[in-house]
């Protein structure tokens, strides 16, 4: 056995690695794995932000489409601040279908949520009633320096401005105007039975 080891040592074919080589290889493996792990973690974080941003954008589109459709089909609109922190947009809008009917609709922003309801009669507007309306989107915040809803003097258009956030994604700003496309009757604005004339 000793003869074989001596011969291998003379021929330069000593099998195995030294402790120093093992330490160097281990260090290089740790550096490479750390870089790959950091890249993977950053990729997952960016992916989550993009998903959150896309969901916020989708929620913003749903909110804007709901309000815009209601105002475009309205014979009259009204913005009411029921109490501090509760602003309501009401419309008398015509619904779709084979036999269109007039509906009372309302959108309320309260405690960071946008809620909606409709009825064929006047809609009671209290903080307790609004809490039971259909939730459209949450994480709603005011746009800088603007109220959520502003009706023009003729009650034919509404400016609405707010931001919608979701998780770590960038908040989506909605700042637009919806204008009624319903003709004004010869008798003037029609708002009954949805709200006062």
Radius of gyration: 32 Å
Q: Describe the biggest sheet? A: 5 strands, antiparallel
How many angstroms separate the termini? 111 Å
Strand content: 25-35%
Oligomer: single chain
Neighbour order of strands in the largest sheet? 1-2-3-4-5
Low-confidence stretches: none
Mean pLDDT: 86
Order of helices and strands: HHEEEEHEEEEE
| Overall morphology | rod-shaped
Q: How would the blueprint of this fold be written?
A:
Layout: H1 2-11, H2 19-72, E1 74-83, E2 86-94, E3 102-110, E4 113-119, H3 127-131, E5 134-138, E6 140-142, E7 149-151, E8 157-164, E9 172-179
Antiparallel strand pairs: 1-2, 2-3, 3-4, 4-5, 6-8, 7-8, 8-9
Give structural attributes.
197 residues, 5-stranded antiparallel sheet, 3 helices, 9 strands
Task: Describe this entry's structure for a reader.
With 197 residues, the chain is α+β, with helices and mostly antiparallel strands. The chain has a domain at 43-179. It is 35% helix and 31% strand. The chain has three helices and nine strands; from the N terminus they run H-H-E-E-E-E-H-E-E-E-E-E. It has helices at residues 2-11, 19-72, 127-131, and strands at 74-83, 86-94, 102-110, 113-119, 134-138, 140-142, 149-151, 157-164, 172-179. A five-stranded antiparallel beta sheet has the order 1-2-3-4-5. A hairpin with a 7-residue loop joins strand 8 and strand 9 (172-179). The longest helix has 54 residues, at 19-72. The model has no long low-confidence stretch (mean pLDDT 86).
